[in-house]
Give the backbone structure.
Amino acid sequence: MFRNQYDTDVTTWSPQGRLFQVEYAMEAVKQGSAAIGLRSNTHAVLACVNKANSELSSHQRKIFKVDDHIGVAIAGLTADGRVLSRYMRSECINYGYTYESPLPVGRLVVQLADKAQVCTQRSWKRPYGVGLLVAGLDESGAHLYYNCPSGNYFEYQAFAIGSRSQAAKTYLERKFENFPQSSRDELIKDALFAIRETLQGEKLTSSVCTVSVVGVGEAFNILDQATVQALINEFEISGEEAPAAAAGAEEAAGGAAADQGGAAAEEETAPMDI
């Protein structure tokens, strides 16, 4: 994408019917570190890649708890994600105070989409440069939504956003038919395998990913590193990593070329997206 005479503010249409600043915001989501969500009839799982700005710094949080029954994973500008998660938290508190019941997930997603849409129709504002995967549980079951910077929102059985997310989507598309009947641990296993697909040869450990769960009888919680590492070891020992192993064999054949490709992708990521 290059600058042109139609991208000086968000309210200017191009002759092709495009809003370039909105497209730039969607590009920021693609440059962020990968985030993955999937759901069954009773549980929803969010997972993300922890990517630090340098070896001397810690990673920024990419998964936020909104309420006991809702959480979000973000890809893109982390600062924008924090602002929106704070807004969602406030809406849940206000709804609970007024109606003494949890805010339905779908209603919160619509409110979030409306807030994002306003930024595409005001010349003195800019679109939020972050995509959010909203996972939650309400009376109608488990839900997973994707909120786009354009103000659009979609409900998914499983989805991935961020850099190198296409590999994770390919894995999820092969498995999604089994997700509705999957157990909690099976969802976590598939989430970890999907995360591994985005690492391009890097070893999957608890230090490079974060996993969270919400479900029937279980409030939204982020699993600690020891628990995630134990699950990774269990799945590897049980010989259930065939899809990841096959991908690893192909990458081994590629050798140094794959490493160079991964390094180039990291260099393209804007520092504020980390």
Summary: The helical segments are 20-31, 78-99, 105-118, 165-175, 184-198, 225-237, 242-254, 256-268. The two ends are 21 Å apart (CA to CA).
